[in-house]
Amino acid sequence: MLKESLEKFSKYVVTEAKQNLSRKDKNVKGKLSDSIKGETFVMPNSIGIYFSMEDYGMFQDKGVRGKTSSTKAPNSPYRFGTGSGSGGIGLGAAIRQWVKDRRFQFRDRVNGRFLSFESTAFLISRSIWNKGIAPSEFFSKPFEEAFKTLPDQLIKAYGLEVDKLLKSSLKQ
What we know:
Elements: H1 2-24, H2 31-35, E1 37-43, E2 46-52, H3 56-62, E3 64-65, H4 91-102, H5 117-131, E4 132-133, H6 140-171
Antiparallel strand pairs: 1-2, 3-4
Helix pairs in contact: 1-6, 4-5
């Protein structure tokens, strides 16, 4: 019963987080959504739940303060320009790929021609770098919502487990 309660909690959080991502970007089912997983374990002296996802998921969930402005994510623990980044694909390369995948291009203000994907990606990257990323809370909200009901479920489930243990101990 205890394991089932934890698995129910885990499954709810994962399902809701994936649905929140698909609501946000209806056209693309991405690597982040596919990577969200929840594992539960119940051992004699401990219980636990482990959630995992792509590293950038936490940045999207909590937001990132910009280099010059923190109005989009004032309470985020993350900030552009600190030098503590992973050194992986990088913001510019990721945005360039995003722009190309969606065939997204800005127009030149003067003559109305489409800008190249690289120019469009540069403008978007510069804006994100300076202004930051607003928190989406795609994971935090379902986690907190489910966590509010979890203690009652665990007390009920754990209480039943203790009852079984006591009854079997008393029979012996």
